[in-house]
DNA sequence: AGCCGATCTGTAATCGTTTTCAGTTGCCGA
DNA sequence: TCGGCAACTGAAAACGATTACAGATCGGCT
């Protein structure tokens, strides 16, 4: 049984063990030109000493960190969970590492992490910023390329990958309209640009159908949605259907409906965003917009790599379409209802 | 408008701008003894140059990486998602960074990441290993402390935080028994030690009640559970209830029940693990064991820090109890059934 | 024999920090 | 006036790698 090395061995130890210079060891490791005999001696020495290169030293010298940052609001948001997997996979295949940070929609924490990213000298950043940070992003003079995801400025100085939010929201409205619903309410998050974009799509689609939009903006929690629905459904002008801008709200709506004894879709139809596995299982199944999460993560990394190769190419903004997954929660409206 | 710095400024640039030596700059940054006058000059220079310390250099010199590794099978598993948040928060408060890796239950990928951890010279690792790696973990001679989570060797050389899996599984069996169920089947994952432990608890509890255990081991996917249930429920000796060892299987059971038109709990009761938000919303609500995920993450970090302070203190194994959240999916058995 | 070029190897500089050690001040008391 | 001490500051040596440059060896050619 080998005694655990007290301290990691360095390239010098390997050089000494092999009876060569550190340059030779480095060359063996980096595929430089080395004679077969020495190469073998060095490789044996590497095994014998249990040598592992020190990445800090390597990065310092080479000025490449081989690291991408990923800053999102909360990894527990399933959208970001999925995107992070795609990003991590892409990084893995490119031989890079990922540093993951949760900003909690908190600009201070976000700022701290941006500073960290600079200190890490990351190769690039994939970023879902808060509104506040998005506004001052151009003034920040970051030293690495940034690819925005999910949130996004209209015509930014940065590459971006986003869902076509207005169109997606409109799809939901159109679908509900086709199923016979007219009084369609909207619940949107009040912190992100995403909520705003989806609201805009909702508003436009309603107008196009000659319906009156009725939107409320709430904090991004299920509870907030539950409360909003309960209050709203007690009103005289209660809606027949809800379009909501994320899966937390979807939960809130279902909970409220259950508590008030309103059947879905009999008394209340629902449609929302994010095709999570459980949306299929709840009640009659929930109609949702499915985001191409894999592709969003992959494309973000792809844009990042393109930018690294051609730093001066014009900014690109990738707008991906969502797909509407129709389920029971938007079943045809019963004329008898109400 | 300031032109973007072509290259990050180093401590030398600051020193030059402030007209002092680099040592002084370093002391200002690190709260060393510096006169007020110079401190001010340096701080101004730092602002003027937009200086950010280079963490690679700092780590190389100080030999502290201030980084913890987190290697789990898949961040999309909600248990790990939640744990990762707790870990990240703890790290954030301790001024440390987190490197997140997904092993996909793949020993090769796991090995690659363990190597990476060594090259990063991480401060410590929080690790949910595959069975294969768990077995040879002692022979790996890692140079940093490891805290195991979720999976775990009986009496290892490493600290660990785990759920009391046998007891938790037994709680589910006892609960179902109390509700009148007798033919209680079990579905367990065939890759992790967790599945094995939960099976053991299930087996023991069944035996204690004088019931015959009937367990099957399946691949860790919802589809596998769905298929297993469909086949099993077509048998002559079909169970009245299922105990399943994770939330993916829970989904599989619900899907199968729905497809076969079996009402829950009328024709089929279900209980499982992981109190995810949606388990409340599916059907009559699903009875589950809730793991103290926050505490698991926090405790893992706490154990890590203790170990760093006292490298030689005896290994500790924290066993946390789950709580049984009772919902409609295990409603009292109808005598009329069958 | 002498020269050239190809091929390998080693020396030493470098990346950006921290930290030791050795000054350099200025102040105080004698 | 001078020694001594405290308080600060700077020069230089690490940390562990990569790499430009130069030196060594050797075969082949004239």
From TrEMBL, chains A, B:
**Family annotation (InterPro entries):** HTH_LacI (IPR000843), LacI/GalR-like_sensor (IPR046335), Lambda_DNA-bd_dom_sf (IPR010982), Peripla_BP_I (IPR028082)
TM helices/strands, residue ranges = none
Classification via SMART domains: HTH_LACI (SM00354)
Sorted alphabetically, which Gene3D superfamilies does this protein's record hold? 3.40.50.2300, lambda repressor-like DNA-binding domains
Q: Which Pfam families match?
A: LacI, Peripla_BP_3
Q: Does the keyword DNA-binding apply?
A: yes
Where the record annotates domain HTH lacI-type, the positions are: 9-62
This protein is called LacI family fructose operon transcriptional repressor
- SUPFAM superfamilies tied to this protein: lambda repressor-like DNA-binding domains (SSF47413), Periplasmic binding protein-like I (SSF53822)
Keywords, A to Z, come to: DNA-binding, Transcription, Transcription regulation
